[in-house]
Amino acid sequence: MTVFISEINFSRIVVALLLCTQIVRIYARIEAEIDLDVEGNGFHRTLIYRVHFKNFTYDGCQAAIYMELPSALYVNTDEIAELRRRGMSTICSVGETDVELFAEKAGQQNVTICASIHSSSSSLAIPIHQRYRYAHKTGGYIDVTLPEIKLLLGCRERIKDYRVSKIDLCEPCVGLVAKWREIPYYMLNNRNYVWPIPVGDSSLSLFVTCATLLTTVIGAVFIGLAIRTNVLDQSHPKED
């Protein structure tokens, strides 16, 4: 009899522990970790953000990353429009669209990328380009640090732990869900990624100008001589 009662009590304890575990999972706050990989070098690079959510029990959700780019960096609106058309990525931007402007004259641009969440994870890739800068006397490099991103989560169900974000996302991301909520996150790596941008040396401008002019004159002389030789050959054909 004692053994039977002990088995019943043990079963009740196990069931209670399982129920407590489920309750904790349901009411635990959502947490996020982000891993950043940078592909490419030079003027054109791709930022790949891999987002993993903890304590995530929702279905049919979207993740979004919002970034305000400095004037030294930009996304090409034609490029991201082509990515959307092909269904490869959902990216949009607001702000400066002229890709030919130098960094000193370019305005600010913000970019939003969004994607579905599968198995509590999502991968978001943003193609970023750097602008040219005007030459300085000393030349060298100017370091640009990638701005801190905002991570947003949108679900069909209400997420009670976090308030609705006031960030003005762009289309089509803003229309994917009714409400986006900003989620705190922990950056696993590349938290302060530095992008060195080369700057020309303006002290060499006179030398470059003279060298260019000299090369142009020499080239023009050779072209003139070649034309003159060809004309003379045609005016005095060789006799058989």
Automatic annotation (TrEMBL):
This is Phosphatidylinositol-glycan biosynthesis class X protein. It holds the Pfam family PIG-X. Stabilizing subunit of the glycosylphosphatidylinositol-mannosyltransferase I complex which catalyzes the transfer of the first mannose, via an alpha-1,4 bond from a dolichol-phosphate-mannose (Dol-P-Man) to the glucosaminyl acyl phosphatidylinositol (GlcN-(acyl)PI) intermediate to generate alpha-D-Man-(1->4)-alpha-D-GlcN-(1->6)-(1-radyl,2-acyl-sn-glycero-3-phospho)-2-acyl-inositol and participates in the sixth step of the glycosylphosphatidylinositol-anchor biosynthesis. Probably acts by stabilizing the mannosyltransferase PIGM. Pathway: Glycolipid biosynthesis; glycosylphosphatidylinositol-anchor biosynthesis. One of its GO terms (cellular component) is endoplasmic reticulum membrane. It comes from Pogonomyrmex barbatus (red harvester ant). The chain crosses the membrane at residues 204-227. InterPro entries: PIG-X/PBN1, PIGX. Belongs to the PIGX family. Its main location: endoplasmic reticulum. GO terms for biological process: GPI anchor biosynthetic process. It is a single-pass membrane protein. It is found in: Endoplasmic reticulum membrane. Keywords: Endoplasmic reticulum, Glycoprotein, GPI-anchor biosynthesis, Membrane, Transmembrane, Transmembrane helix. The gene is LOC105433119.
